[in-house]
Amino acid sequence: MKSKTTITLIVVLLCAILCYGFVLSRTSQNDISSDNPDGIVGTMSLSGSPFVAEIAPGLMFKIDTGSDLSTITAEALATLEKMGYHPRKEIYPVLGRDGMGDIQLSATRYKIDLPFHHKVYENDSTIYNEIINVIHNVDFAPSKNGLSVLGIDFLQKFKIEYQYHNKALNLYVKLPAGYVQCVDLSYSKALRTSIWLGKRYYIPISIESDEDEYFIDTGLQRVGIKLPYREARRTLRPLYADTVVSARGQFPAIVDHSAILSCGDRGGSYTAYYYDNDEEDFAMNPFNLFTQDVLIDFIDLKLYLKPTYNIPKRKLPESVTHITASR
Q1: Tell me: the pLDDT tens digits for 167-197?
Q2: Which CATH number fits domain 27-172: 1.10.287, 2.30.30, 1.20.1070, 2.40.70?
Q3: CATH of domain 180-305
Q4: Which helix (H) or strand (E) holds 262?
């Protein structure tokens, strides 16, 4: 009897090891390539909270580093078909958190070529110029929640530039000029996170002189920096009641509008939210936290900030007469 129990346990253990090995063997975005790998690989205009990116007319994706996988809706697939880009359906098991924070399991995925247009504004109207680049063989799971999402499995293949004033997102492979390194990033090497298609990236931040590793989550709405409710004891300043609304629900929060924050060699007074939910205790959204251009380098694990911003000169209407001062 004892030997049968031992054999059963060994078989169960071997099955578990084989299943875990199979899950680890799955990959995503390994076949990505682009027509123009130099300079800006892709550019997107941003709107909403959390940010939704428009890469081409009618083609919208939520930008979510908290989503392990990228997903696409049937409507977005139809839009691509009309543009002449035909998705290739594959039988491939996909497992991970989606843009709503739910675990998604799918037996299929799509390989898609994504065209990135150059969007400009002229006379209060939007004009899409020529396609500036096409990123080929992007892997997408079929969306089960009505959201098309560019998740961390895709985003971690690039250096992501957020242009604060222009509300635009640019993808690079090489570091653009003008940035100064702020701090090094890291990613989770825990066994429980190794099964996901994308890594979980973290940044060291100190709030009120206590440093923690904050999960980089561009899916956070309104919130720039999030701590668990118990950490509100860090400050003696007045705190204000608020409610945080997210894809996971509504959560009571208390807010410190003057939290002392330091990140790398940068520091200052920022708004910190203290609340509990079923996601990471410590999290940050760089798009909400920083009020300047920021570049997240997932390739080389660094975060950069741009110390200056050049405001483009406005073109004067033809009816305006230029006046030259005489000496």
Answers
A1: 999 999 999 999 999 999 999 887 665 666 7
A2: 2.40.70
A3: 2.40.70.10
A4: strand 249-263
